[in-house]
Amino acid sequence: MIAGRPAHVSGALWRLDRIGFGYGGQPVLADFSYQFEQGCCYGVLGPNGSGKTTLLDLLCGLLVPESGAILFNGRPLADWRPRALARQVALVPQEFAIDFDFSVRMVVEMGRYPHLGRFEDLDERDHALVRRVMAELAIDGLADRPVNRLSGGEKQRVAVARALVQEPAVLLLDEATSNLDIFHTLSILGAVGGRVRARGLTVIAALHDLNQATFFCDRLLFLKQGRLVCHGPIDEVLRPDVIGEVYGVQAKVVYSDFSQCYQVSFRVPEGGC
Q: Which of 49, 105, 155, 207 could be joined to 143 by an S-S link, Cβ 3.0–4.6 Å?
């Protein structure tokens, strides 16, 4: 957990009741129930194909469950108008692709659109927010560059900036730091974590890196083959037996005084590879 974070604010944002979803007849999530609370940072972990991205797409309404119910702020998710939901929820996708040669500044400014009326332009507060977030993520020097000519890591920082400019109550991160170096990864996690502490932002992040999850998150959800294997605070669920069941590897978990969080090391079981 990021140092200095207060206890999260109590209050359910999402209630998922026995959600089921699949592609082409193949189930991806099955009988999934969970409650996400306000002001908490959740890490969603599991092997490839375990349902992490599908879960995030269901939470933001990009997908509709085949069975079960999803409530957001006490209302069925399907009852939310897209624009109203976009004022509350921002998604940073796994792959950020824009085919047009919009500038970086223009793309980041798109994060303000859910808050604008019809035919309304950005005002000085909007422009100031855009400048501040771009500087925070060190992309202000790229402001006039076409976004489709950036590196993968630069595009990902633009995607995070656009989501933060949206000023959502909830931020969904789908492996948002997978293309980034260590410095920019920690910068983004710090920027997001600061908003969790200061503003009660709720974050749900699909992650592959368990050590990144322990640095960043309050609670972990472990998925395997579309089912919730284990969930809870890091110090309760980050155990070698859970990691072995979910990933099929041997693990050692220790607390690091240097990073002030738990660290995991792995090895393939003898005869397992």
A: 105
